[in-house]
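A protein record in our archive is deliberately plain, so that people and models can read it alike. The record that follows is passed on verbatim for readers who wish to inspect the format.
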Amino acid sequence: MSDAGNIPKVSIAKIFLAFLMIGATSLGGGVVGYLRSSLVGSLQWLDDETFVELLSICQSLPGLNASNMAILVGDRLRGAAGAVAALVGICLPGGLIMVAAAAAYGASHKDFPLVNAVLHGVSAAAVGMVLYVTVELARKTIAKPPDFFFAAATLAFVTLLHESVLLALFAVAPVATFWFRPRKDGQ
């Protein structure tokens, strides 16, 4: 990782509370934005380059990006105990809310117009948050023509060819890895 020599000393409790706050305040698809804002911005546990590297790993693994990121960051900071603390912290708020929502929704099968309106609004905000994070990460990671080419190839694979993200990853990653491999001349 980029900043492997600069791993901060963080308590298990602080890891748990930080991810509990992220889990309690991030809604919908905007969680990557909250993760970046917290982990790179306010907490400064990661730099942008390391965040992008970890996010790339998270996106290539099964499961939710948020829980995958919590595990990787927690492990990076404090090993297995940090990974467990981060995972429980990020999952607890949403899990409790989902249990309560399922119980409330299951108690009555009526349509809830206000709830539907809130969910629609939150969904729109989440899309905006994802777009913001995408633009920010692109600005910091797509610096040279090959970066742009591989990002565009992946996007085209998914949007124009309608292939899965996993298949796009398997198609583009080996070529990108070959292109960016370390060379004997140091370039």
Summary: The two ends are 19 Å apart (CA to CA). The chain has a mean pLDDT of 87.
